Predict the structure.
Amino acid sequence: MNLEVDGRRVFAYTAAHELDAAKPTVVFLHGAGLDHSWFGLQSRYFGYHGRNVLALDFPGHGRSDGPPLPTVGAMAGWVCGVLKTVKVGKATIVGHSMGSLVALEFAAQHPGEAERIALIAPGYPMKVAPAFLEAARKNETAAFDMQNIWGHSFEVALGANPNPGMWMYGDTLARLERLAPGVLYNDLKACNDYGAGLESAAKVKCPVLFIVGRRDMMTPPKAAQALSEKIAQAKTVEVAPSGHSLMAEAPDATLDALIAFIS
Amino acid sequence: MPIYQTTSYVFRDTEHAASLFNMERAGHVYSRISNPTVAVLEERMAALEGGVGAIATASGQAALHLAIATLMGSGGHVVASTALYGGSHNLLAYTLKRFGIDTTFVTPRDLDGWRRAVRPQTRLLFGETLGNPGLDVLDIPAVSKIAHEAKVPLLVDATFTTPILMKPFELGADLLYHSATKFLGGHGVAIAGVLVDSGRFDWEASGKFETLTAPYAGFHGMDFEEESGTRAFLLRARREGLRDFGACMAPMTAFQILQGIETLHLRMPRHVDNARKVVAFLSRHAAVQKVIYPELPDHPDHELAKKLLPHGCGAVFSFEIKGGIGDARRAGRRFIESLRVFSHLANVGDAKSLVIHPASTTHYRMSDEDLRRAGITAGTVRLSIGLEDPQDLTDDLERALRVSQK
């Protein structure tokens, strides 16, 4: 569905369902340079299993108007604005990578509106390699390659995509190539600059699930420890065969972890 | 690579089954839609071509049909090169017309012709990377620019070039397919096709592709572009095209093609080296009127070939034999019948060298004038150069050419 937030078009995937005030809501927040369809299988599942689904395109991504938002805090505030627009008072927030920082910040800033949060491939501090950041700043294709290589486990290069017939590297590359210049840099810089992680984690009152990929090269499992230690009620699920792109690399294990947490 | 010689896959429970059917989980349901062995071939072909994914099909023709049927229905229009494989020409000129899909054919190097042929109903531009029968080189950068100005994709048949000699997506093509029967397999034992999507064409922004951007009643109102973005075309092609038309690839065939592509990077340079030696031999031969190969300076696309095909122009080409003491049709027949190393059959892209004389086989009933309109002559001979010792090939050709002139 298309919404208008702050005078700009915002796209939210709803799994072909109208929002129903009687149903609980799950919001999906994608990672740097990506869009709502990164959660294709998982968001569709919840849309067909009794939940309102809002898989959002951040401003400047997918079908949402730009420009992109420059900080994690601004993105969290924007999510709040989206929920107000659709009159959803409380929601479960599922965020991947950059989206996990936004989910964390949202839960800290708006504790009454976060029912629970699931942080997929989180890390703090989420420092970005200077070479990666610089390549993205220059809009060089090397930045796409770095995101592709570090964003998947080594095993992805060997094939056997769980999604039949698809090539994971090619799909990620095609998505990144569709971005307007500067969007990937904006997102990476927002991750790199985010400095409120520990303070925000300490403020979180709702249940929290960490889903980490054992073979994640961008945000390895140990990168989530600083955050999880600050959250008493946090649980962690480690997905053995996956790298950073858990929804694509291990879609069923990721979905099962979400079902167990949300249902 | 295991061969999953099975039609279907045991579900864990009813919830799992429902999730697979509703695309909430990844996996296989029925081998007409997907199969683990076939999926490996699809993924490897996507990787070789630099696409987002692929769909393996029962043949190259099935891949072409799947692409067109996914993009348009009755009322749709295709602009296609005149330099096409006969089967593709038949599909476009006669069969699809019967289903309401019209095609305008244009000479591939006539760029204004491509532009002029585009109509409001046009949904696809289509050509072969190296066209039949004259090896016309498709100017993919220029034709894709015309396609994109018209907000439609460019589809290319990349069978003759393979990803070893050309990467069409890097030149601007949006979709491509192969008759995998040919060089990809390389051994002439399996009929197969594969359709690859670059994922770069923005169907939503185009606004011309309702099949991908409007709710589809045949799959619970799914809007494929909204659902999957870069994967929209392949998702519809698989979930509708394979489901309903059913021209899928068998797992054993996928295994055979996989064996072929493991050595493709070694075979293609050898094919090209051998072809160059045979072209050089024929170009000097007294019984040969003309050799048609883009690496020769007299080919109309010689300069374009140098730019787009620096690793070679493939191994399938034609030459025109002189009549000798009779006419060229007779000389062609005598030439074919005198060959010992070349196999006389209707295929190309095999490890073994192949030959056919159109005027006595595929175009047997045509007059010399009709042959000319089809771009060939009574003396045209098509060769597909294999991997044999090139000396054996030129010795065989020498003997047969000598006989042809008597």
About this structure: Chain B is about 40% helix and 15% strand. The CA atoms of residues 194 and 392 of chain B lie 33 Å apart.
